[in-house]
Structures are given as C-alpha cells and as structure tokens.
Amino acid sequence: MLAENITDVIWTVNVTKRTFTYISPSVTHLTGLTVEEAMNQRLEEILAPDSAKIIHDELSVLMPILMKGHDTKLSRTYEFQQRGKDGRFIWIEVVAQWHHSPTGDIEILGVSRNIDERKEAEKQLKDSQLRWKFALEGSKDGVWDWNIETNLVYFSPQWKAMLGYGEDELNDELDEWKKRVHPDDLDKCLSDIGDHLNGVTDAYTNIHRLLCKDNSYKWVLDRGMITERKDDGKPVRIIGTHTDLTERMEMENTLRKLNADKDQFIRILGHDLRSPFNALIGFSDLLIENLDQFDRQQIEKQLRIIHQTSVSTFNLLDQILLWSKSQSGNLVLNIEKFGFVNAVQEVLNTVEKVATQKKIQTVIVDPNDSIITADMNIFRTVLRNLIINAIKFTHTNGRIVISAKKESDRIVTTVMDNGVGIEPSQMATLWDVNSNSTTNGTGGESGTGFGLKLCKELVERHGGHIWVESVAGKGSEFFFTLHN
Fold first, then answer.
1. Dist. CA 135–CA 272, nearest whole Å
2. pTM, to two decimals
3. What does each C-alpha distance from 260 to 163, 380, 425, 436, 484 come to in angstroms?
C-alpha cells in the first residue's frame, strides 16, 4: 500500500530472465508509461546506451559473486538515463539491492528517483566553473578566497605561480599575502579593504607591489567583493582576483620617462641652444656695427668669442642629436679595436685649449698598452664629456689623470681630477636627465648639465656601466666600461 502512494518508483527485476516482476504505479509520474507498458519493456530498451553498459559491466562483476551463495546481498547506487514515453531521456538515481529470489533466480530490488533538476544544476555549476576557469586561465589572474572569521585564505595555484611559488609552498594564512605587500603600499591596501568591509565602497580595488620568491616585486591589481554575510550583515567571506600589472606599470614608467625626456629635449632646444645663438647674433652685430672703429685686437677678440661660442654650440647640438638617436633606438654601434692611449690623446687635442687656459695638466696612464673593443665614436664622446667636466670643476694649475685598468674581461677607464668634488646632495641627480640643476665651474664656466646625462645614456646603450666616487673639496673620479 505504501508503494502505491509514493513518488519514487519501486520495482523488482528478474536478472536471470531479464524481465520486470513488479513496478509501482508512480512509474507513470516518472516516465509517462502505465505500469503495464513499463512491465513489458526490457532493461536494454529503457536505458540510454551508456547506462545500459553500466548494467552490463555490473552483471559481469556481480553475477559470479552472487552465484557463490544464496545469502549474498549486494547494495549499489547508480545514476542512469531512462527513456520516457515521449522518447526524452531523464536522469534517475537508482538504489539497488542484488540478491536471490525465493525461486533461486538473481533479482534486483530497486528504487528510482527523478534527479533531472539536480543533474541540470550540477551541469550549470560545472559550466559556470569551466567558464570561470577558462576566463581566469586566459587572463592569467590569480584567485583568493578569504574567510574573515577564521582569517584563512585560499590562494589559487595561479596566484602562487604569479609570485614564483609552487602549489604547496605557501600556507593558507592571510599573513602570506600581508607580509609580501611592499611596505610603502600596505597601509593603503588595508585602508581600502577596511572601506569595503565597512560599506564605504561597493568593492575592494587596490594596485600594489607584491614580493616574489626571487625577491623582485610585481605590480598587481587586487580586486575583491564580499560574497557572504551573517544574518546581522557582518561580512564573513570575500573573494577576489590578482591581475599582474607589472608589464603595464613598466610601460607607463617608460612613457613617463619618454615624456620627461621630451620635455628635457624641448628645454635644451628652447634655452640652451637659444642662448648661444643670441650671443652669436649679439657679438656679430657688435662687430658689424663697429667694424670701422675696432682695431685688429678688438676684432680678433670678438671673432674668438664668436668662434668659441660656435664650437660649443656645435658640440651641444651634436650631443643632442646623438642622444636623440639613442633614445629612438636608431643608434648603431660600430665595434672595432683601437689603442687606449691614441684615442685619449685625440680627445685631449680637442680640449687642449680649454685646459691650457686654466693651466691644467693632463696625464695619460696605461701601463698595459690597453686595446679597447668598442664603438670608438661613443668612447671618445663619453671621454670628452668627462674630461670637459673635470676641466670645468678643477682649479687653475690643477691635474687630471686619464687611466685604463683591466678588470676581469673588461677595461675600466677612469678620469680623475683634484677639483672641487661633488656634494652628496648632488650625487642623486647627477645622471638624471630630468634634473635641470647645473653648477658653474671654478672659472665661472656655465653649462647645460647635459654632458654627464649623455654619458650615462651612451654607456648603457653600449651595455656598459658608469659611476663616480667623489669627496667634496678634494676631487672626483669618474669610471666607465663599455661592453665588448
């Protein structure tokens, strides 16, 4: 009587004869078939092929076991697809007991239940998980899931891999994230999280740096949202993602540098080139207007000023063009071998007059007769700027030593002076192309401050390194290497 009134279908099937011996009336609700119609069907007819195969495989495994003894009972649970009267397959869950019937045949007592809705929900969940997994794998984002009450966090494999860790290298504590946030970024991170937890913001968003396994830092876009609350509204759970922004941040920094370089370029064109041209125009106008009144000595004086201004302006323009080529990636290196002493002497010949005016002694030291393998034009340009800088900041009767020293597989070129040296506060901006600060020389010489910045640009484009050691009031030593 109970079987007649429940929605689950109760049935028995004689496995030996492959026929149903009983089916409860609820089969009509499940499949649309009458009891009589259902009783006349065989198992192979009502099950989908995959489900029928499961039964076939079970028979191969269970029949030998059941044949060993009449008291043997085996319980199993299956999920099948069963065909309804309209031909559509529905998912059913079957709880079955395999045993012997009173006549000695092998029989199954089963209960079938419609699980179509559950299977559809599982499918939708699986599809959703696949879409989520595909989206995350495609975007390379890492996922985190923070239980606020336990303070435990699930970090996805991609979250860990982003920082260079394996799946088993980090535990599930919040501190694993917190201790890796850059100290300069942590306060803002915690403040933004607090704003979201307190309802100030709809979501948590923050850009910060995270320490990687190799001790480098990566920029990440960290986003999250409360997904679960208690009945009183208190947050319980936040789920979020990490997006690697390192490449974008580096690109933005590069763009900022390019913009700053462009501004510096415009400043030089607008001021540092305009000033000498104004001087050229002024002195040439003065000479033209007073040509008949000036004697030979006065004319020669004006012409020397014009010549000196023209040469320095030409050198500055040449440096700007060289710097521009380097910035645009159009600087082509012409690597060759040349003698250190000869190359230095050629540079000294071009600055001899300036050094002589201040009675500065220049000395070349190269006990090993060094051979340089580099772009000769870049070598001479860097060296000329360093020597001019040394002359500018060395007192009358001073001394400048240009030397070469072999270290490992490279030759270090040094320009040493006994001039005024460099104040510690100036060291930080010495190579900064964005710094506009310049200092007059010991003889009142002015400058653009561009020479040292060009040296750094050219040396690094050549794969080398440039640095300085200086003591204020005692002099400076500039060193540089050029990669072979």
1. 54
2. 0.46
3. 31, 27, 22, 11, 30
